[in-house]
Amino acid sequence: MAAPAVLLLLAFLIVPVILGFVLSFTNARLISPEPTSFTGVDNFVRAFTADPTFFRSLLNTFAFAAVVVPVQAGFGLVLAILVNQKIRGAVAFRVVFFIPVVTSIVVVSILWKFMYQPDGLINSFIDSITFGAWQGTAWLNNPSTALTAIIVLSIWQAVGFHMLIWLSGLQTIPGELYEAARIDGAGSWRQFRDVTWPCLRPTRVFVLITITIAALGLFVQIDVMTQGGPVDSTSTLVYHAVRMGYRQQQIGYGSALSLVFFVLVLIVALVQRFLTRDKD
Amino acid sequence: MTVHPVERVLRRRQRLWIYLAMAGLAVFFLFPLVFMFVSSLKPDGQILSDVGGWRAFLPLGDISFRNYSGVFDRVPVGRFLLNSLFVTTVIVGAGLVINSMAGFAISRLRWTGRGVVLSIIIATLIVPFETIAVPMVYWVSQLPTLLLQNGQLVYDFGWLDSYEVQIVPFIANGFSVFLFAQYFSTIPTAIDEAARIDGAGWFTIYRKIAVPLSGPAFATVAILTFLPAWNQYLWPSMVVQDENLRPVMVGMQYFFQDNTAWGEIMAYTSMITLPVLVVFLAFQRAFVSSVAASGVKG
Q1: Which of A225, A259, B31, B122, CA to CA, is 20 to 30 A from A33?
Q2: Is A221 helix (H, G, I), strand (E, B) or coil?
Q3: Any alpha helices (H) in A116-250, and if so which ranges?
């Protein structure tokens, strides 16, 4: 009974993983007059020594993750604590905060690109709250602001998801613990630090790992909004892998770049195993 | 327990701050979408002139559905919607059957190799699709396919530009199998044994006992597989060139690239956002518990 699922996973997940590994060491092209041949580690040498865009993409990917992981996790936790209060309307707010998550990221990218136009909504808002003191900038056309602009909308879109994960963690904490802390005279901050935070440990690991893996895989926003520009300031690892592997049809080289991404994800997953191991 | 009057005042004040914070956040999360829906009803000139004030968020002035009919005149968006609907339905539907069967086999049946299969399925959970997208293009371009040509079945290679290339790779899902296996293992095995004694085969037990008892698991998997299937972008943008087979998300990107008419672009994005939003609001409780379930593995 497991056969259909196992066969499909084999054909469309395990074989592609192995194939990607093998292709990384070849000069395979999608359509090529010459036969594919093994080229050893040439693709990796090329990536790390002769492809400045790859290096820039790697840096951008790390920069994106370095901001998005803590901000999105922290913001998600704040939202979860707010909607976890026993007050009327909390459920309605939870629904509202989750709405961007069910909106397609392609839609979100197009919408925010429109709002980031030089004469768009964001700049006119900045203009009106600073009474014209600051006119804003062409956010996506400026190499020093483009990645930040993408970070903002990425968090806006995804944070509701992690709010819910945090929330389900918060709801597993028994109320008696807070009761006991209150009797011991602990204020809100002490209750958070000594009860909530330690109890959220498993949730915390899960949230951080899922955000990290998603952040390292940043692609759609780049493809729709900037195509990696201006001057590679928003090119990311996965975007570059797709650009080389598919658009320029260098399957071998693209596979090698994808493998670099996969190794990063594996490292993150191993860190997760390490972090969740020591508690039992 | 009586509450001291001072504390009650403090609590009320605290609640006021919480409401203010949540209202501010609600504005932050909603304003882009309100702007999108409102702009989709306005002519381009008015969208730009309204951007400087509150009118950007209000359906005032020259309001009409002209942008929507403009989209339909320009691209076969109805066809794109049907394509996405078809692809999504098959992925979700076939996925429910195949993954629940695998989950059943793993949690209820004893067979050699079960442990190996389970650990392989769990290992697949850490492979993000982006890592295999490029080799997968190469792979599907080599796969054999049967074609009907002049009334004859012929062999050909390459799955590019087809429905199957958008559907088949996404039916089996390790996480769905895992969720089903977890859910099925909560059904008491005594039921199986009684049914076995009555002469029921495993497939009958799956169909007549496990499936009817597992409504929540099916709902969770359906919700968790529906959104990514509907939102597919990277994969179809690589393997589907034929406009007749194009799903909505890719169709929208092409429309966006060839167009500067923001009113029509906003109409297009509104059109594909609204159905999902309605489904979400109708089933928000189920959505919320599904997402919570997806965090359980942590």
Answers
A1: A259
A2: helix
A3: 121-129, 146-170, 175-183, 188-191, 197-199, 201-216, 220-225, 237-242
Domain containing B52: what range? 1-64
Cβ-defined contact of B168 to A238 (cutoff 8 Å): no
Q: Is A161 exposed, middle or buried (0-12, 13-18, 19+ CB in 10 A)?
A: buried
Which chain B residues touch A88 with a CB distance below 8 Å? none
Residue from B48, B90, B138 to probe the interface with A (highest A Cβ count within 10 Å): B138
* Residue B242, domain CATH: 1.10.3720.10
**Tens digit of each residue's pLDDT (9 = 90 or more) over B143-175:** 877 766 667 766 777 788 889 899 999 999 999
Which pLDDT value is given to residue B104?
A: 92
Q: What is the pLDDT of residues A16-30, one digit of tens each?
A: 999 999 999 988 887
Count how many pairs of residues, chain A against chain B, have C-beta atoms within 8 Å. Answer: 257
**Within a domain: A272:** yes
- Which CATH number belongs to the domain containing residue A250 in this structure? 1.10.3720.10
Task: Please provide the average confidence, as pLDDT, over all residues in chain A.
Answer: 89
Q: Establish whether this prediction's ipTM goes over 0.85.
A: yes
